[in-house]
C-alpha cells in the first residue's frame, strides 16, 4: 500500500515533468490519482477492518494504526471525490469559455484546491508510510 502511494505521487510528478502543457499534465495526474484511489481505499478499509477485529481479540499493538488509517481514508476520499471533480468542473468551465483554467476568473480558487490536494497527497504518503512501518514492526515482534 505504501508503495502504491509513492507510485501515485511519482506518477503525478512525472506527468508534470514530462508534459509541456501544465493543464494536460494536471488532468493526467488527477486521473491517475482517482484511479489509484479505489485500490488504496480498498486496502485501507481492509487494514482498518482487520485491525479492529484483531484488537477485539487481544492484539493491542494494532491500536496505533487506527488513526493513520482513518486519516488516510479521509484524505483519499476528500481528494478523489471532492477536490478533483471540482477542479475538473473549473477546468471544463474555463475551456468552454475558450481559455486555460489559469487565465480564467477561477484561477485563484483552482490554485487553492490544487494546493489542498497536494497537502492531502503529502498526508497520504505520511499516513501510508506510518501504517506500513507499524505493520512491519508488529510482525517482527
Question: Your description of this structure?
Answer:
With 141 residues, this protein is an all-alpha fold. 83% of the residues lie in helices and 0% in strands. The protein has one domain (2-140). The chain contains four helices and no strands. The longest helix is centred in the N-terminal third of the chain and has 35 residues, at 22-56. It is elongated and about 60 Å long. It starts with a helix and ends with a helix.
Question: Order of SSEs, N→C?
Answer: HHHH
Average pLDDT reading: 86
Q: Structural class, judged by helices and strands?
A: mainly alpha
* Unreliable stretches: none
Total number of beta strands? 0
Q: Number of helical segments?
A: 4
The number of distinct structural domains comes to 1
Gyration radius over CA: 18 Å
Shape: elongated
Distance between the termini: 21 Å
Helix content: over 70%
Strand content: under 5%
Main sheet record: none
List descriptors.
single chain; 141 residues; mainly alpha; 83% helix; elongated
Provide a compact summary of the structure.
This protein is mainly alpha-helical and 141 residues long. Helices cover 83% and strands 0% of the residues. It is elongated.
Topology overview:
Blueprint: H1 2-18, H2 22-56, H3 66-96, H4 107-140
